[in-house]
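Q: Structure tokens for this one, please.
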Amino acid sequence: MDSEKIKYLVREFLVALGEDPEREGLVETPQRVARMYQEIFEGIKYSNDKIAQMFDKTFEEDYSSESEDMVVVRDIDIFSCCEHHLALMYDMNVTVAYIPKGKVIGLSKIARICDMVGKRLQLQERIGRDIAYIMEKITGSHDIAVVIKGKHSCMTMRGIKKNNSFTETAVFMGKFKENESFRNKICNRI
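A: Here is the predicted structure, written as tokens:
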């Protein structure tokens, strides 16, 4: 990420808005924005495969291939930025479920995967697919579900301005796709 260019462009953006970038409250804004972008867009520098490598911490567990026991992690809060408007996607809540196939992933790694995938210019639909891909790569399980609910400031603060609207997306793979009762367990709480 080119922090110097970001600082320059943020200053130019302030000028284009009709602001005075030398005004006391704005003097350090280009530096602050550049630092913030380093943090909130950290995921841009990693492919899904690299994220899978970073968080590949699993433990062997004796689950039979026919087991329908599932691991569900709910209420993982993340944020992202919409690639269409560079607008914040917020109050995002992710649920990730999988049926283990001989190994389980460390639970905190699931939250870290969600977090890193969100730290990109994204679409909510792609966030779910990216998380599912990474989970499948790490766990070796094809039985994966990712459900996301979130608000999009491109709908709440501009355009249609529907402040109470949420967008819900779901990715179901394997048994979650094939079996309605599995989907219901994820969508309707266990």
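A few notes: Strands lie at 58-60, 71-82, 88-98, 103-105, 121-122, 144-152, 167-172. The mean pLDDT is 94.
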